[in-house]
Amino acid sequence: MKPSRPGSAPSRVVYSTGAGRMCPGCVRPVAECVCGRVAKEVASRGPVRVGRETQGRSGKGVTVISGLGLPPVELEALARALKQRCGSGGTVRDGSIEIQGEHRDTLVQELGRRGIVAKRSGG
Fold first, then answer.
1. Burial of 42 (0-12, 13-18, 19+ CB in 10 A)
2. In terms of Cα–Cα distance, which of 30, 110, 12, 114 is closest to 75?
């Protein structure tokens, strides 16, 4: 980065409410990280499971992503991006992401593209 003025420190984003947490590697919002630094942190926390549940939903199935271990702000940003990718609704509940409908294959592929190792769970 170039200094904003001669003799001053390089300019960088100090605080922003618009994008949430920024990746320290590529200086982008965490949901749009391209360097994989945040994904490596998530991968070291344990397995990410993508499963399907119908209990308590009147037979309607939802795809549940659990084991991410991200802070709530990052979880919301990732959920928003995944919902847009699937073209469906959903929510963040108890540290896991719920996407309406059967989207396990799409979500495993999308998480893999973002550098997060995810496995299908269930039948």
1. buried
2. 30
Q: How far apart are CA 67 and CA 92, in angstroms?
A: 13
For the chain, list the strands marked E by DSSP: 48-53, 62-66, 90-93, 96-100, 118-120
pLDDT in tens, 83-117: 999 999 999 998 899 999 999 999 999 998 888 88
Domains and CATH numbers, the chain: 30-120 (3.30.780.10)
DSSP classification of residue 69: -
Confirm if 121 and 65 have CB atoms less than 8 A apart: no
